[in-house]
């Protein structure tokens, strides 16, 4: 069955015939390719020695379907539901048996089936676990043994959304030396990308500038993309996760397209400047995501990646236009990034042209593209270092100016601080006095009484001294307020306060405190007195209060009821006050104007 008949029945095989027509020397159609003769070379391409045939899965090619094929390194076949059959003859022209490696320099093939000499057969690919490969490597290596003068036939087929056939024959030691150079190349690229991505993300955390985040994410996306393209992801990260391996290719491609489209407008944006065409690019990124989801849902895996590649080509064209417009508009930032991005943009353009089959997709092209990306990374690394240096110098200059300003203002600030400190100290003193002093009588208030009692209660426990408390209450003082008014009552309260201070605080002032509890009630706390010393002192107070006279109310004679109590240092102060209050109550019940002792 001829390919054109097959295409009429299988409309999805749309790309394979066109690629074959462009890449096949029609003069060799229907002619068998000559055997490949190995004469001890390090490497031999199968150019001119390989025959290919395109058929749908399940159909075997007929004799007249085979076509001789040239330029294997640059060949590419695209299509869906395509099975590419190939065959060749290998001839050992030397007089010694040798072991060779058949190398297919492609890391992403869905399924490949290979038979060598009828006794060696392999079935492997991205749809099989990685350990199905005869030799663990990112691309496909198949060992074969050729006896002296032996001719072996290799045949097989490949199914994939995209097929390249860079098939060659290697001596194992020569291949290992060549692969080592490629590994060093790839390792340098990945190391550069990882270091720069890390620096960009750290700098973004420190500065919160979106440009660093955008370029850091682009580097991460590029690393993931090339991990998949080079086959390192399948070999080292998910060798048995076939589902992950199937989605890794489309996912990494879309991440690269999205990060690339977001990076350029973000890095060209300023605080008050939005680059031209940035809105169109963001809209295209949204369309890219929507289109990818639709293609993923309907299962068009071939178009899923091709759609992202074509869309990336459009975004690249818009970014180049945006750079041109920004540079023409006099943007210094655009000129700087145009210089730094030039190698990366050229690399992206070359990859897209190779994908479109406008230029050959070769290992040299990959090396050139990686070099371009690496140059852009190094350029951005230099720019990052320069900007950090400028930031440090700017910060140092600002710190110097700030230091000079602080020095110039030091004397005035010191004087103001001193004045404010004095004012604050005076205000604090007044506030403390107001908080601890009764405003009418000038005596300590209940709060200061509690603080004094707590402090001296602890001192009493240390010295084992006895504590004494007394509560004073003016008898029938309400009648004075009702008869003469509160102003006259306040004068009497002030007079009583002065009398208490005179009688009780003349000695051992630091061991005694007289306070106003409220209304016509006063209290006393003291320690280091004997029980026999306090009653005469309280009687003297009662007598002195009875002698108080005011010109405004000369006929008023005050009387005072007093209850007191004493206790050991280990007794709670509240308990001693309670017994003094009970003693005051008994004094009132007993007729007032008397001193009553509390229960022991």
Write up what this structure looks like.
54% of the residues lie in helices and 17% in strands. It has 600 residues and is of the alpha+beta class. The chain has three domains: 3-170, Immunoglobulin-like, CATH 2.60.40.2380; 180-394; 446-597, 2-Layer Sandwich (Alpha-Beta Plaits). Strand 8 and strand 9 form a beta hairpin. The chain is elongated and about 145 Å long. The termini are far apart. 34% of the residues are buried.
Layout of strands and helices, then pairs:
Layout lengths: L2 H7 L6 H8 L12 E3 L4 E3 L4 E6 L11 E3 L6 E3 L4 E10 L5 E7 L6 E6 L3 E5 L15 E7 L4 E9 L2 E3 L2 E4 L1 H36 L2 H20 L2 H6 L4 H27 L9 H21 L2 H28 L3 H24 L7 H74 L9 H18 L3 E8 L2 H8 L1 H19 L7 E7 L2 E7 L6 H13 L13 E8 L5 H17 L5 E3 L3
Helix pairs in contact: 3-4, 3-10, 4-6, 6-7, 6-8, 7-8, 8-9, 9-10, 12-13, 13-14
Helix content: 40-55%
How many structural domains are formed by the residues?
3
Portion in strands:
15-25%
Number of helices: 15
Distance between the termini: 126 Å
Could you give a short account of the major beta sheet?
7 strands, mixed
* Rg calc: 50 Å
The number of distinct β-strands equals 18
Helix/strand/pairing category: alpha+beta
Report low-confidence residues grouped into runs of 5 or more: 1-30
The pLDDT mean sits at 81
Rough shape? elongated
Précis, in short:
The chain is α+β, with helices and mostly antiparallel strands and about 600 residues long. The chain is about 55% helix and about 15% strand.
């Amino acid at each position: 069955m001829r390919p054109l008949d097959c295409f009429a029945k299988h409309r999805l095989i749309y790309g394979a015939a066109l690629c074959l027509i462009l890449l096949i020397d029609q003069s060799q159609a229907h002619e068998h390719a000559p055997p490949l003769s190995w004469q001890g070379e390090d490497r031999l391409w199968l150019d001119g020695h390989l025959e290919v045939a395109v058929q749908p899965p399940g159909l075997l090619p007929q004799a007249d379907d085979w076509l001789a094929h040239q330029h294997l390194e640059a060949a590419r076949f695209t299509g869906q539901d395509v099975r590419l059959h190939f065959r060749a003859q290998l001839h050992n022209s030397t007089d010694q048996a040798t072991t060779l490696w058949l190398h297919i320099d492609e890391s992403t093939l869905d399924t490949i089936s290979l038979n060598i000499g009828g006794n060696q057969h392999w079935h492997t690919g991205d749809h099989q676990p990685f350990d199905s490969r005869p030799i663990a490597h990112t691309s496909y290596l198949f060992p074969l043994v050729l006896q002296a003068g032996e001719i072996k036939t290799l045949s097989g087929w490949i199914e994939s959304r995209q097929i390249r056939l860079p098939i060659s024959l290697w001596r194992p030691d020569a291949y290992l030396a060549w692969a080592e150079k490629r590994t060093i190349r790839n390792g340098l690229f990945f190391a550069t990308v990882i270091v720069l991505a890390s620096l960009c993300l750290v700098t973004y955390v420190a500065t919160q500038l979106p440009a660093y985040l955008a370029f850091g994410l682009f580097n991460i996306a590029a690393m993931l993309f090339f991990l998949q393209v080079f086959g390192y992801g399948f070999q080292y990260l998910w060798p048995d996760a076939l589902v992950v391996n199937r989605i890794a290719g489309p996912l990494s491609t879309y991440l690269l397209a999205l990060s690339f489209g977001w990076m350029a407008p973000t890095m060209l944006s300023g605080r008050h400047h939005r680059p031209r065409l940035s809105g169109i690019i963001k809209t295209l990124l949204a369309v890219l995501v929507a289109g990818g989801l639709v293609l993923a849902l309907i299962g068009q895996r071939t178009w899923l990646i091709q759609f992202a590649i074509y869309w990336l080509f459009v975004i690249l064209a818009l970014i180049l236009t945006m750079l041109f417009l920004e540079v023409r508009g006099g943007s210094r930032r655009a000129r700087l990034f145009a210089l730094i991005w030039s190698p990366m943009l050229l690399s992206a353009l070359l990859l897209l042209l190779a994908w479109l089959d406008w230029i050959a997709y070769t290992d040299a092209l990959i090396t050139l593209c990686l070099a371009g990306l690496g140059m852009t990374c190094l350029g951005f690394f230099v720019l990052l270092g320069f900007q950090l240096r400028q930031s440090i110098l700017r910060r140092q200059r600002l710190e110097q100016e700030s230091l000079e300003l602080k020095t110039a203002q030091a004397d005035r600030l010191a004087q103001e601080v001193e004045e404010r400190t004095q004012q604050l100290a005076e205000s604090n003193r007044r506030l403390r006095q107001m908080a601890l002093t009764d405003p009418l009588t000038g005596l300590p208030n209940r709060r200061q009484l509690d603080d004094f009692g707590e402090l001296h209660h602890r001192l009493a426990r240390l010295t084992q001294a006895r504590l004494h408390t007394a509560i004073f209450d003016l008898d029938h003082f309400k009648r004075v307020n009702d008869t003469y008014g509160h102003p006259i009552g306040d004068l009497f309260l002030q007079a009583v306060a002065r009398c208490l201070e005179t009688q009780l605080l003349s000695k051992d002032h630091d061991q005694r405190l007289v306070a106003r509890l409220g209304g016509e009630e006063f209290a006393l706390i003291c320690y280091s007195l004997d029980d026999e010393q306090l009653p005469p002192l309280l009687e003297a107070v009662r007598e002195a209060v009875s002698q108080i006279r005011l010109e405004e109310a000369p006929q008023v004679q005050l009387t005072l009821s007093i209850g007191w109590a004493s206790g050991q240092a280990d007794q709670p102060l509240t308990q001693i006050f309670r017994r003094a209050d009970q003693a005051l109550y008994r004094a009132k019940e007993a007729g007032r104007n008397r001193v009553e002792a509390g229960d022991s």
